[in-house]
Structure formats: C-alpha cells, structure tokens
Amino acid sequence: MAEVSVSEKLELFSKTVFREASEQVNKMIREAEKERDDKILGASDKYLALAENRIEEEKLRIENEYVKLAAAESISANKEILMLRADLIDKVFENVKKKLEDFTATEQYCRRLTELCKKASEQMNGAIGQILLSKKDMKLAENILSQLPCGYSADEDRSIKLGGVKIRFDSENRIFDYSYENELSLARERFTHEDKLRLGD
Questions:
Q1: pLDDT lower than 50: segments of the chain
Q2: pTM for this prediction
Q3: What is the distance between the alpha carbons of residues 126 and 144, in angstroms, rounded to a whole number?
Q4: N or C: which end of the chain has fewer CB within 10 A?
Q5: What share of the chain is helix, strand, coil (3-state, %, to 5)?
Q6: Statement to judge: residues 119 and 26 lie in one domain
C-alpha cells in the first residue's frame, strides 16, 4: 500500500555529491534486496504500505542532503539540483517497482488480490461486480472468483501491466482501483508534491 526525494550535485561539488548519491543508491538497493527476500516470505495485505514507508524513509534522507546543498548553492544551480532529484526519485521508484514485481510471483499475491476483492464486495453491500486483472494474472481469476459471491466475473484489463486488481460495479457506476500502476502513481504524486512544498519549488 504509496503512497522519496532527490538532489543534484553542484558543479562545485560534482564529484563529492555524485559519489555520495551513488553510495546512497547502492545502499538503498542492497537494503531493498535484503528486505525483498524477507518480505516476500511474510508478505500480506500490508505489502504496499511497507513499500510506501520505505519510500518515505529514503525521501527524508535525500531531503536532508538537499538542505545541505541548497545552503551552499546559487540560483543558477537549481536546474542541476532538480535533475539529480528527479533521477534519484526514479531510482527509488524503480526499486519499489521491482519489489512489487517480485511479490506478484508469490502465493501471498493471490491471497492479497482476493482480500482486496472481498473488501470491495463487502463495501458494495451485495452488488455483483467484475474483477479486472492483467493478462498474466488472468490465471488467478478462477481461484479469486471461487471465494467471491456467486455472479462475479473476471476480465483482462490491458491498462494493468505491473499487477494488482480493479473491481468494477457497473450497476453502481463504481470502480475500486487497486492496480499497482495506480498505487505507484498516487504515491509518486504525493511524494513529488510534498517534496516541492518542503523545498520551496
């Protein structure tokens, strides 16, 4: 379950900042790989929330670096800072995306999708819906449908590439979007918005 910030080296400090940023990214990747192995074994409905917490932790670290750099920079260096920040944000989200991709290959993933479908069904008080899955996840449809009220159907949604599920209730004109694309998009939007507010962009 989101909903991470970045900074650019200055020309004056290019070698130092690049080295520190590279070390930080490498450390993040090493930590993420270790966490991936641990979390895949115990993954549950909190998986997306844990990933977003990881993003927030890395964001705070990177923002601390921004503050130090901004104090020593001129206005002309702002573009360079923004470029490095965007690059580091991309790396953090690519890392989270990889962890989510790994999660989709586990048994817990099918249970997670089933829990999300049940949650949506309960909120709709008996309305019959349709679950929408990625092409690769259609193999899970029969298992998920067997645990939902009679009348539910499943279909492929080509907009879902990474994973997750959407549950559509046409009779109520309602859709629950739990696709990983949507979750990552919302997390990145929140992260970028908060980051700009903190840095005064």
A1: 1-14, 17-18, 41, 197
A2: 0.56
A3: 17
A4: C
A5: 65, 10, 25
A6: no
